[in-house]
Design a protein that fits this description.
Layout (H helix, E strand, L loop, with lengths): L3 E3 L2 E2 L2 H4 L3 E4 L6 E4 L4 E4 L12 E7 L8 E8 L5 E5 L6 E5 L11 E4 L5 E4 L4 E2 L10 E7 L7 E11 L3
Parallel strand pairs: 1-14, 2-10
Antiparallel strand pairs: 3-11, 4-5, 6-13, 7-14, 8-11, 8-13, 9-10, 9-12
Amino acid sequence: MSERRIRPVPLTAERFAPYGDVIEASRRATAGMNDARFERFDDLCQLDAGGGRLAVSLVCARVPSALPYRVDFVERHPLGTQAFVPLSPCRMIVMVAPAGESVSSDELVAFESNGRQGINYHRGVWHMPLIAFDADQRFLLIDRAAGEPNCDIHTLDEPLLLVDA
């Protein structure tokens, strides 16, 4: 039996809202700072440490991925949100399903960023692990600091194949 193919659709705040926040510079929330030499984009996502503390980290891809990409499992973070923001323009695809105690393959959908957008997964949202299409691609990661385990892994009932849009 072959895997079900999933093609990503363009990432927009409206489409991604059930799963989290899209992090991008937007004219709707700007303010000047440092004598107006900079434009500031405030409150771009709703971070949630679930009573813990937030950690800001950098992650760097060691091994690039390529499409088609087989997805056998997904993960979720039940105690807090998790945000990824690319530090330079890059191809970024995320696959998600609604928060819940379990997930099935047919609930998963995929989104592709415009190369400059980041995402913030809401607490408990199922998602495939981060992939990068270039070695050394770097992301800013904001999530709940270590302490209690905050990552559940679920093997999919049917593997999926992530393919080009």
